[in-house]
Amino acid sequence: MNIIIVGTAYPYRGGLAAFNERLAAEYIAQGHKVEIYTFTLQYPNFLFPGKTQYSTELAPKDLVIHRRVNSCNPFNWIKVGREIRRKRPDMVIIKYWIPFMAPCLGTIARMARKNGHTKVLSILDNVIPHEHRIGDKMFSKYFVRSIHGFVAMSLSVLQDLRLFTADKPAEFCPHPLYDHYGQRLQRSEALQLLKLDDSCRYVLFFGFIRTYKGLDLLLEAFADEWLRQSDVKLIVAGEFYGDSTPYLQQIEQLGIADKVVLCTDFIPDSEVNRYFSAADIVAQPYKTATQSGVTQIAFHFEKPMLVTNVGGLAEIVPDGKIGYVVEPDKDQIATALRRFFEENKKDEFEANIVEEKQKYSWSRFTDAIETVAGKSGKKQ
User: Mind giving me the DSSP string for 89-122?
Assistant: First the structure.
């Protein structure tokens, strides 16, 4: 097939770019022709909460990436949509994660599908976002109407989709493994690279730090007396998306500065394996969620997980088998961490992950996309 992916890719950084590039690589490995259309402007600076949108890594090899899309210019959307329409790809795949992008991506989709040949499909991170804004539902409705069919990466997102369309084909398929961050290192090597004490054990909180991800709950859990007295420390690895002051004040007020290792610059792809290899368990104390790429990085590195029972997180972390599922509550988080370390569950959970992660291959995900494509009509 001839496939065009529209969305974030190099030189942009982060999980969206990683996903689109890895999906393209999978289709290429299967023998398909793939191009990615990414942004010349993704977010205006005043809407972007981090330090930079751009990667410091080298460009991915063997991928054709065109920088064409301006998220804020309607004339550009029409131009790009017409360009894709003329190429007559068999599929256009658009990853949808935030209603701000709906006018841009929805217009490109409408233009591209007018050739009567191209099927336009969407992979849904969210339909209703974690952080609500005026106009979200209107924008998502516009986008959903432009798409032939959908793959949702959590059951909660699939349910949200049905608020906007009752009959368009859609499949649930969990987020596949992020397996492009290199190999797992020896723990001692990872700790040495990170300059961490090898006599301690480590909980990892990884990724952009946003309010809904519940870092504050995890910090409160570390004020638990057992954790406070133990050799367990918390690594916070990721960039603040917002004001860091409340978290820094919380650490000081709880008296846990000696228990927290802050690595709060953006973590480049080439260093991700250091953090996961050093960790004993990965914690995702989210207050709301759909799914998370962090879970799939943990699967790749075969690391036990603690997740909260929100969105789709519990769907892929069997409680008591490869980790723990708790409510977003500091006491439950603290209790689960204590159990993990007191009962020495690390080796047991890691052995179970080896089997469990087989469910999350990229070929299984492309099969889901093609199932939706096969059910999708071409009516304009």
Answer: -SEEEEEE--GGGHHHHHHHHHHHGGGSS-EEEE
217-260: per-residue pLDDT in tens? 999 999 999 999 999 999 999 999 888 999 999 999 999 999 99
State the pairing for strand pair 305-308/91-96.
unpaired
Dihedral sign, Cα of residue 361, residue 366, residue 369, residue 370: negative
- Cβ atoms within 10 Å, residue 274: 22
The predicted model scores a pTM of 0.81
CA–CA distance, 198 with 178 (Å, rounded to integer)? 27
198 φ/ψ angles, rounded to the nearest 5 degrees: -80, 0
What are 142's two structure tokens?
A: 């516009």
Q: Which residues contact 208 (CB under 8 A, 6 or more apart)?
A: 14, 50, 238, 239, 241
Residue 28, exposed/middle/buried by CB under 10 A (0-12, 13-18, 19+)? middle
At 143-173, the pLDDT tens digits run 999 999 999 998 889 999 999 999 999 999 9
Of 123, 152, 106, 169, the closest CA to residue 27 belongs to: 123
Tokens in use for 246?
Answer: 């409340």
Cite the DSSP H helix spans in the chain.
15-29, 74-87, 102-112, 136-145, 155-161, 187-194, 215-221, 225-229, 245-254, 272-278, 293-300, 313-316, 330-342, 346-356, 362-375
